[in-house]
Structure formats: structure tokens, C-alpha cells
Amino acid sequence: MPFVIALVLLVIISVALHFMSPWWLVPLASNWGTIDDTINITFWVTGFVFITLNLFTAYAIYKFRYNKDRRAKYEPENKKLEIWLTVLTSIGVAAMLAPGLFVWADFVNVPADAHEVEVVGQQWQWSYRYPGADGLLGAADGSLITAKNPFGMDADDPNGQDDILVSSQQMHLPLNRPVKLLLRSKDVLHDYAVAQFRVKMDLVPGSVTYIWLTPTVAGTYDILCEEFCGLAHHVMRGTVVVEDENSYNQWLASNMTYAQFNAQAAGDPQLGQAMYAVCAACHGPNGEGNVALNAPRLAGQEDWYVRRQISYYKQGIRGTNAGDLYGAQMAPMAAVLASDAIVSNVAAYIQTLPDVPAPVTVTGNIDNGRSLFEPTCGVCHSESGKGIWAVNAPKLSGMSDWYLVRQLQYFKTGVRGTHAGDEFGHQMTSMVQSLGDDQAINDVVAYINTLR
Amino acid sequence: MTTYIPLADQPSELHDPHTFISKYVWSQDHKVIAIQYGGTAIFVGLIALVLSGLMRLQLGYPNTFAFIDPSNYMQFVTMHGMIMVIYLLTALFLGGFGNYLIPLQIGARDMVFPYLNMLSFWFYLLSVIILLTSFFVSGGPTGAGWTLYPPQSILRGTAGADLGILLMLGSLAVFVVAFTMGGLNYVTTVLQARTHGMTLMRMPLSVWGIFVATILGLFAFPALFVSAVMMTFDKLLGTSFFLPAVMSLGEPLEHAGGSPVLFQHLFWFFGHPEVYIVALPAFGLVSDVLSTHARKNIFGYRMMVWAIVIIGALSFIVWAHHMYVSGMNPYFGFFFAFTTLIIAVPTAIKVYNWVLTLWHGNIRMTVPMLFAMGFIFTFIHGGLTGIFLGNVTVDLPLSDTFFVVAHFHMVMGVSPIMVLFASLYHWFPKLSGKMFNVTLGKIHFWATFLGTYAIYLPMHYLGFLGVPRRYYALGETSFIPDSAMALNANITQAAIFVGVMQLVFIFNIIWSLRNGKPAGHNPWEATSLEWQTPHTPPHHGNWGAKLPVVYRWAYEYAAPGVKDDFVPQNMPPEEVVMQPGVGKFVDRSEEHG
After folding, report:
1. B408 strand-pairing partners
2. How many Å lie between the alpha carbon of B220 and the closest alpha carbon of chain A?
């Protein structure tokens, strides 16, 4: 008897949860309403079966509960009933499958007027490539990827010269225009998934996969990687902005083409030296850093990282959080470097400064630090702590240890890495959570101090 | 003139054990091997249970437990999944119940190759030891997810990508060797060693389920074996079976031309039948438990047998429904959605027949029966959510979300485990000669049945919302509200509760082995042969001097006119005691043929 009650209650609770659940498909923002319809049909058919079968079972258990004076009925089989049930089940299954296959036929056949956008995945970030005025994407290949050619563009393909390269984690799509997303991976499996679009597909190294959709609602949506791609899988995030044609075109024009990307002048250290005088006041003439002035060592840091951080300060991505007092001092100084070219020059000059490791000021348990560092930090920042450009992880070894401690604390408490524009910092805010307390932070930094 | 002697009657050496070692350690007795298999499987299963608890702590309370970093988390996920699917469920259903029940239920003295059977267990134990060793090597066990998809499973950036993955692949290869030795034995024994009168269509459904599942395993496991070997080559010898030209953290690798999707095809060519390698024995065992405690024949026995065979056959042409969004040619979707939904028909028939077995029964609410009925509920739920994922269009939004996790835990976790508990309680009296504590058994049932549903029912809705699986932490995601985070904490509480309550089961088993009341030969008044052995627990050789002779099917319950409500398979018609005033016993069970 308790089982009968439990069964009925479970059916009631399941149905109630279904209708009262605050957790349900997020509002649709693409043409794939037919997928939602198929889900609803499936829900009605399976819901009917779930309720009927379980209530019938509960009734049977109640009606035929044990009675020592009664015998079960001897009934080996009932052909007619079994055939009926088979036929009814087949009809129910067909009712769910048929609409599903029609929608799938839509999914595999991309409309002829769809424009193409390439989504590139790598451990653990996204980048995007849009065809230029010619409407064609140039050839690209994983074997061509270098720090100077992160998209692996084929320099000889004329179609690629006007391709627009977007290294940001944010992509844009025009409203109400069908788009075919070509999915390419540089390293391992990834999966491009936007809940509001409903469709998703894996990125497979060695081949190009695709999905198509028509964005129908303007807005900004999260892109999640939904195929496990290693340690930082959960922080491989992007966003997609769906907007009207004008805003889209404006945004597109604000990004560099492949040709422009190649034509960028390399930073000139000689020109940078003059501007560096501003920095030298705090960071020292040789970029060695000054703990008394809370200025970290710059010499030895890679130029792409220096450029990015200066630009973050200029854009207010860093130095604006109320908890970041020293960053607030840095922001106006960064603003002095007026153009991207000047920033490049300064970064190039910093490359020429003597690479002398910063003095050791932090001590801790090195063995513990190592066991914390190697499986987590060391994956992106490399086991030797020298940093890896491909994953946007800066050099740690030999840099100011007190500064590392402070930044880890900032990431942990959200002072750094929480600004929407800090696309790589937000990965750090998640990764540092496994450093339990200040001691763990000191231990890790103490270990990093040994990597010089 | 030579006379033909059926194999079952041929005088054979019985390898009577004489020492403690040959009786309990290097034993060739199928019952001892079954217990060795079962004990080992339950032991690793408990490890996997603890791992799931740790994983749930991280999901329910992110940023709380500093000892769980992203690497550990994925190692917990991976080892939990692999242990549960392969080393617990497969080993316990086939190595455990297969070994124990096949000879007893078909009336054989042992498996036909007892020495091979012993080797099978020791290879299984070796595979378990290799697997557990990976917890203690540098880098720890692999954290690639239980599907072990390359390239990431063998590249830097994934936990255990050096030693852990190699030990995992090695362990799987050894497991397949162990399974093959056991599997050939089970199939041969069923085909060759059945006693007099035990036709195939008189076998209990337990044997049918285990028999067909073993055949599936013999076809499916080689795919896992070769993929393990090929991935080992990719890792150690630099071959490129599964690796195209790729970067790894900024460094180009010296691989070219391989296909990661090829691995997925091989893996799921094994992996989908694997679902049925677990499910078919569960279907069989639960049929016997339901029939016995409902005091009624299983409804539609022949249909049940054919459903097992058809499901087994179909399970080989549905594998790519695990790969709808893998980047394979999307036109495959039509074919695999079609075949997948066809499987729903024979599966539904099995469910109807279990329910119809209860109808007009005389249901005894014993502990095994509670678990068996709990299985019907959880299996209906898990089966129906499978229709969502099998239908290729519906799979698009749900794939790689918690809906998938909830679905396969209902259908492949909770359901088979309900059957495992039903079966352990059902056959415990035969295995030990003792009765378990019923109150503890019922507490265990209610905690497990209600607790697991509290875990997995709401988890489906996280999937509809779009919460991705295999995420160490959800962080800030615009479409995931705080309520979903709170729900995750509640699910964790339920999971910890269910995990802890399994101690009740362990305690009950240990306590009952020492203090349980004697159970007698046939406490459930069951018809099948294992309950008719001359000794309980059965002695070596099972049947004493003379093998049993079978006169009818295994489901002769509530036969009209018979005094008792069951007639054992081996009771000669003339010995069946009738109710007063009723004539001779007439066997009607095969009339419908």
C-alpha cells in the first residue's frame, strides 16, 4: 500500500514539477521554433504514456495486493492484447519520429541565401572569421598557425586578404538573415552551443562542420563550449550579439581584415623608449619594478600581454573596480599612450630591457605550491611558467612575486577578471577558486619563484 | 555400437576442491567465482559512489571545496562513469549473476570451462588493479570523461593525459580479455549444458537476458579493445589513427590524417550495445523476481524472449545516436533516429508485459518485489526520456546538457541498480542460506527509490534550461538563474543521502550473513531450478548425485487445480498434488505455442 501511494504521488509530483518548473527552455531567438514544437509533441506523447502506465501499475498493485485466500489468474499470454499494444505503441512512436525527421531535413539543408561565418575554437577560447567584400572566406589550415598568423590563413589565397578576423570572444550576427556557421577547431573537440538558438554542433579538428540558423531576436547570448575540451572547458565562453543590419555592418567595419592585420607596423623600440619615460617613474628605468610604489616588474613580459593590459587600462576594463586602488593609479598613466601604435612601440621597448628576475619576497611551502601549480596553472602558463601565447596566458616566472599574490587575490575576490570586457580574466576568476586560502596562494607563488 | 550421451549427462571431472585455497581463492566453482566477481564489483562500485559524492559536492557548492580543482573534478567524473558502467554493472550482471545463475537455472553442474572461468575472474581483478593504480601515478587517473574522446584524452591540458590514460586503456583491454573468457563460457554453457527437458524456450528469462547480453558483449567489446589499442599506439608510437594535424597549447603536433570521429564510431559501436549488455540481464532478472513475488507467470513469455533477442540485434545499428552533434555526416541522423525509435517498440512491450504480470497477480510486497516495482517506474521514466534524445531533432538542444546525464542515470544507473538490489535480496537466501533483515531492506529501498528520483527528476529540467554537463563550475552564465544553482545544492544533498544510505545495505548483508535466520531451500516458493537444489547454499556440483529433469517452463504459478500456487520446473507431473476433487495435473503452459 505505501508503494501504491508513493507511485501515485510520484506521478503527481512529476507532472506538477513539469508545469511549475522555473527551469525550462530559454526564450527562442532563432528560426528553430520547429524544434520546440517537436519537443512539445514528444512531451505530450511520453507524458500520456508515463501517467497512464504508472497509474495502471499503481492500480494493479493495489487491486491485486496479497491475499492468502486468493490465487493469481493463470494467463500465459494474450495474443490479441499484445498485438494491440504493439500497434498503438508503433503509432505513438511514429507520431514523434515523423515531425522530428522533417525538421532534421530542414536542418541538414542550408538555404542558398545563407551567408557564411567561420567560428574557430581552440583550448579555451573562440575566435571568428567573416568573409570580406567578396563574400568568400580564404583558405586556412591548422598547420599554418603561428603567433603571427593565429588563424592559420593561407597568405597566397586572394580570397582571404579581405577576410575579417575577430580575436575577441564576442561575435556579431545580423538579425533575420540566415547564416551558415562553419565550425573549425585548431586542437581538440569543442562544441558551439547557444541555448537561445537551440542548434549546436561539435568542432572537429581535421574537418569543418556546420550549422545554420536565422537569428530572430536582437540581444546578447552566451556561447558555451559543450564538448569537453580539457581543463578549462568550463570557462571557454563567448557571446553572440544579434543586431540590426546597420549596427552589424558598423561592427564588422571596426575589425581588421587579414591584409590590415599583416600590414600593422611592428612596434618600434626606439620610438617606444621616449614614451617609456612615463612608465619608468614607477616601474623603473629597466622595467625592474618597485615594490614600494606597487609597480610590478615589466621586463621579460611578452609584448602581446603588455599591449593587451595597457589597452584594458585605457578602455576601463582594468583599473575601474573600486577595490583596485593601484589599478586606479595606472589607468590615467596608460591613457598617456594615445594610440595603438604608441602602445606597440612601448611594448617593443620593454622587450629590449634586461631580463633579470625580480627579487624573491614571498615564501611558502614549495611542495604544496607545486602540487597546486602543475595540474592547474601550469597547463596554460606552461610548466616552466614562461606563458603560452596560444592560450593567452602570460609569463609568471621571474615576475614580481608580490604582484602575483595580489593579482591572485584580486581574481579570487572579483576585483579583477569580472569586467565584461576582460575576456581572459574571467577564466582566471574561476581557475583560482581551487586555491583555498592566502597560504595556498603564497605556496603557489613560492613555487613559481623556483621557476627562474 | 556407441550410444550418444548428451553433454549434460556425460560423466565429467568436477575439480573437487580440497584445500582452502582451491575452494575460495583459485576456485573453479561457478558459485565461488560469482561471489568473487560480485564482491570485487561492489567494492569498486563503492569507490565510484564516493567519487560521485565528491563530484556532487563541487556541483552543489562551487568555490567551497578547495581540494577539488578542475583536474580532480574531471577525474572524479571519468572514473565514476567508467567504473560504474564497466567494472560494476557489466561485471556484476554477467560475472556475478551470470556465473551464479546460469548453471543453477539450466540444471548444470558448473560452467563447461571451469578453469577458463577462474581465469576470467583473475583477469577481471587484474583490470581493476590496473585501473585503481592510476589513482597513484604521477598526474593521476585520466580526466577525459568516460568516453575518452581523443584528441584531448591524450594531449596536455587534460588530467592524466600521460600515465592515467594509458592505464585506463590497458585496464579496458584486460577487462575485455576477462569478459571474453567468461562470455564464451556463458554462451557455450547455455547452448551445451542444459539438463534434460530444459529446452531454450523453457529457460528462465534471467538466463535469456544474460545469454543474449553475453553474445552482444562478444560482438561489441572487440570494438572497444581495438580502439584502446589504437589510441595506445597514437599515444606511445606516434601513429595517427585518431589524430589529424592539430595544435596542442600552441605547439603543432607531428600527427596527420587521423579522425577523432572514427574513435567515436568505434567507441559507440561498443558503447551502445553496452547499454543493453547491462539492460538485458536486468530485464531478465527483474522478470523472474516480478513473476515469483506476484505469484503469477510472466505475461507473454515468448514475446519477452523475442523482445530480448530483437532489442539485442537492433542495439548494433543505433550507435550513432550518441553522435548526432559530433560533426559526422548529418544525413546519418535520419537513419539512426529511425532505428533508435524502432527499439522503443520491443522495449515498450517488455514494460507492458511486466505490468500485465502484476495484473491478476497475488502480489507479495517483499523487499525484492519493492525493488523490482521500483525498477518498472524508473525504467519507464528513463525509457521515455530516451525518446527525446533518440529523436535527432530534439537531441539538438538537449545533447551535452544535464538532460543527458539525468536520462542515462535513470535508465542505465538507477534502473539496473534497482534490479541489482532486487536480485541481491531475492537470491541472497539461496546464496547464503540466511534471510536478510526485512526492515533494513525496506529502509534501504525507500531511501534509494525516493532519493534517486529526487536527484534525477529535477536534473532533467536543468538540461532543458541548457545547463551543460562536464562543467567544473557554471560561473556567470546569463541564462542560468540562481534558482538553478540552489537546485544543484538540493540535488547534492539528495545524492549524499542516497550514498550514505547504501551503508544500510552493506550492513544488512554483513549482519545477515552472521545473524540472519535460516532461509530454507525455497523461501519465495519459486519454480525455477536453483530453488530446488538438494542443499542450500548449493554444494559443489550443485545437484548431488543426479541432475534434475525439467518438465515445464519456469513460470508455473497459480496453475488451475493445483494445491500449491507453484509447480517447480523439475516436479514430475504425477507428483503434482492437486486440490481435492480435481483430476490429474494438466500442463497448459505450452498450449499457446
Report:
1. none
2. 25
Does the beta carbon of A69 lie under 8 angstroms from any beta carbon of chain B? no
Say whether residue B156 is in contact with chain A using an 8 A CB cutoff: yes
Do the beta carbons of residue B99 and residue B34 sit within 8 Å? Answer: yes
Cα–Cα nearest to A350, from A272, A254, A408, A424: A272
- Name the helix (H) or strand (E) containing B252: strand B251-252
B122 touches chain A (CB under 8 A): no
Which of A233, A392, A412 is best to mutate for the B interface (most B CBs within 10 A)? A233
Using the Cβ of A429 and the Cβ atoms of chain B, whether some distance falls under 8 Å is answered with: yes
Averaged over successive runs of 10 residues, the pLDDT of chain A (452 residues) comes to 94 95 95 96 94 97 92 88 94 93 95 96 95 91 86 92 93 97 96 96 95 97 96 94 97 93 85 90 92 93 92 92 90 89 92 92 94 92 92 94 95 91 89 88 95 87
**Omega of the bond leading into B151 within 30 degrees of 0 (cis):** yes
Tell me yes or no: is domain A115-263 CATH 2.60.40.420: yes
Does domain A358-452 sit in CATH 3.40.50.720?
no
pTM score, two decimals?
Answer: 0.94
CATH code, A265-356: 1.10.760.10
Model ipTM value: 0.93
CB contact under 8 A, A6 and B364: no
Task: Encode burial over B441-464: b for 16+ CB neighbours within 10 A, e otherwise.
Answer: bbbbbebbbbbbbbbbbbbbbbbb
Residues of A in contact with B257 (CB under 8 A): 206
Q: Could you tell me which of A433, A144, A383, A190 has the C-alpha nearest to residue B156?
A: A383
Chain B CB contacts of A229 below 8 Å = 152
Interface residue A96 vs chain B (CB under 8 A): yes
Interface A–B counts its CB contacts (< 8 A) at 374
